[in-house]
């Protein structure tokens, strides 16, 4: 086993040689279509799931999880393939049946020795997700990589690396929950629907809207220079009381009559980030966030749709307006964006826009908020009960902010982000509400 040492917390993870887990039954071969919504978010997502049972040790955890993976890949066979480029110059999956990459690992400590495992620190948690050495680009990274790490206390961790082009958050949760079900010998509650051709562009493509989510924004505030500093990752808990206080603040000037938890929290974080990074007043800043199109598309996407059913909504403002105007201004911008993006016509237009331009959303001068607060992170079960903790092992890009569920308090939200050291100090102060 190769040793991966983490000096920050003094624990070592010994990783075994990677093997391949192939579908338990012969699966389809050939090229598998990825939609234009999949093309836009081809980034690697790394998540971790910690398990510990009072009545059961981890002696057979690796074999049990591995056998279950082989079974679930029968249903999700594209994940056993490899990413390639189609004749049209788009990402497509070659269903080779090569399998997922699987690594067995052991940590020289107990779970309790790691401190608060719910806090995302990529320097620590990154040791629990295997990175394929020598990969130069996305095509060289397998679509699904699993590491199972056993701890001395009898607990274990599943570290999963998956390309977002394969599954969005809802579909990924259905995948891991289904993985748990087949591992325990149960039928799938939600069998995957793999056909993505229902999201094909129209012929001819019809662009009905301006798609500023793809706009490049000039960095006149020199934030890229700031990002050369050491990055610090922190999470901030917003309980019901704090969220209620923010909603009161958003409607107190009478500009709005109501707002959702997402709208007010996204607005608050967007403004605070602008202040913390000390953006010049003329700096344009863009907020991107995902809107789930499953039930908004016509016809609706089928239950169990295994792909990306999301489009990116956008709001754009100058930093000066955002910071100087009341919170209701930013909330109002987000409400307009939600309304615009929540229609079949906008989503079809976004699909067609990519078909014509091959543009990808620019992250310069941008905050990208991803909401995982309603995802079923704690419902999977491989035979050891639900996870004692789960979440991201790292953020996929520097401008990404995650809204995560709280394990015990379902209506509370953890806001996770990374900022340069100096920016994080200022941001922490702004979170004291």
TrEMBL record:
GO terms assigned for molecular function: acyltransferase activity, transferring groups other than amino-acyl groups
Record InterPro entries: CAT-like_dom_sf (IPR023213), Plant_Fungal_Acyltransferase (IPR050317)
Keyword Cell inner membrane appears in the UniProt entry: no
Signal peptide start and end residues: none
Domain of life: Eukaryota
Keyword terms, alphabetized: Acyltransferase, Transferase
Pfam families: Transferase (PF02458)
Protein family membership: Belongs to the plant acyltransferase family.
Protein name: Omega-hydroxypalmitate O-feruloyl transferase
